[in-house]
Structures are given as structure tokens and as C-alpha cells.
Amino acid sequence: MRKLIFIAGMAVGYVLGAKAGRERYDQLREAAERVRSNPAVRNAVDSAALSGREAAARAAGVVADRAGDRLPDAVAQRLRAVGGQDGAREGGRDAAA
């Protein structure tokens, strides 16, 4: 009995959603576009993306420092490149050490 009620509810929801579907979808899409084109939102998104890239670069540097000597050379070199440490470190250790 519960399955029947659930299926009937799904059918009613589908029919009602289909009637309002395209118009409501267009309204939501336009509202999302207005939000996305707002300069304050764009600045916040750009700032968040930059912060994320900087955090990823720091994390890659930490991994290269701590585990670089235990990683294959190609992986360690890639981590150093992403972390902005090209040539400054050798196998995760200071070159002077």
C-alpha cells in the first residue's frame, strides 16, 4: 500500500512539475545568470578560486618536502613544480643539506 501511495505521489508530482516545468526552469536560469553576472559575486568567486589555488600549491610543497624522497622522481618533480619550488629542492630535501 505504501508503494502505491508513493508511486501515485510521484506521478502527481511529475504531472504538476511538467506543467510548470519549462517556464519555472527559465525563471530559475535567468535568476542564476543575474547572480552570476553580479560583480560582487564574480569577485568573490575569483577570490575563492585564487585562495584555493594558493592552498593547493602550499599543500603540494608540504607533500614534496615531507615525502619527496620517498616518491618516484617524476611525481616529486611535479609536486615541486606545482608548489613553486622548481630546482630549489632536491628529492624533498634542501640542496644545501
Any overview of this molecule?
It is elongated and about 60 Å long. 77% of the residues lie in helices and 4% in strands. With 97 residues, the protein is mostly helical.
Provide keyphrases for this structure.
2 strands, 3 helices, elongated, 77% helix, mainly alpha, 97 residues, two-stranded antiparallel sheet
Average pLDDT value?
Answer: 76
Structural class: mainly alpha
Which geometry do the CA atoms define? elongated
Order of helices and strands: HHHEE
The main sheet orders its strands as 1-2
Number of strands: 2
- Alpha plus pi helix count: 3
Biggest pleated sheet: 2 strands, antiparallel
Oligomer: single chain
Poorly predicted ranges:
86-97
C-alpha Rg, in Å?
Answer: 26 Å
End-to-end separation: 75 Å
Roughly what fraction of the amino acids lie in strands? under 5%
